[in-house]
Amino acid sequence: MMISMSLIDPLDARILLALDDDPAATILSLSRTLGVARNTVQARLKRLEAGALRSFGQRVDPAALGYPLVAFVSLSISQSTGDAAAEHLSRMPEVIEIHATTGDADMLVKVVARDTAHLYRVTTAMLAGPGVQRSSTSISLAEQLPTRMRALLEAAAEGGR
Fold first, then answer.
1. If DSSP states are collapsed to H, E and C, what string results for 30-92?
2. Region 32-44: what's the mean pLDDT?
3. What is the mean pLDDT of residues 19-30?
4. With b meaning 16 or more CB within 10 Å and e meaning fewer, what string describes 118-139?
5. Which domains, from first to last, does the chain contain?
6. Which of 3, 25, 120, 161 is the most buried (most CB within 10 A)?
């Protein structure tokens, strides 16, 4: 589902880069660092929090919560039950991302687990969901590049997209 939000402009990107450098920065210190009025920084952050910024919980490493195993599960779903399947998957705490996809699978689901036995229980529970017909699981051996936004923010800060 595409969410309508305003695009991040160069000043927004500069604010976010400054916060990336110092997550504990105050609005006053951001305004001084960037040479922008405090009220401007405050208003920009409020607008970003209403749409562009994701929750703080997305920065937590699942391994720190006892879920060191990461896997990607491709699911084939009956076309008429896609929403019900996504709702079922969303109720599983080990499911941390769901993407509707094109190609051989209908959904790509990122899951975390304590170990392979736990992963087996999670994938078995996924298969019990409405309309789930087949699954294929790939275990992540190592995260080669974590999700990153800095390079995109730097380009936006320079006025390019």
1. HHHHHCCCHHHHHHHHHHHHCCCCCCHHHHCCHHHHCCCEEEEEEEEECHHHHHHHHHHHHCC
2. 96
3. 94
4. bbeebbebbeebebbeebebee
5. 10-53 (1.10.10.10), 62-139 (3.30.70.920)
6. 25
* CA angle (30 as vertex; 19, 41 as ends), nearest 5: 95
- Contact at 8 Å (CB) between 109 and 42? no
Alpha-carbon 38 to chain mean position: 29
**Collapsing DSSP states into helix, strand and coil, what is residue 141?**
coil
Reply yes or no on whether the pLDDT at 7 is more than 90: no
Enter the tokens of residue 44.
């920009």
Average per-residue pLDDT for the chain:
92
Task: Give me the helix-helix angle, 10-21 and 38-49, nearest 10°.
Answer: 90
* Residue 28, both tokens: 């006053």
pLDDT of residue 128: 96
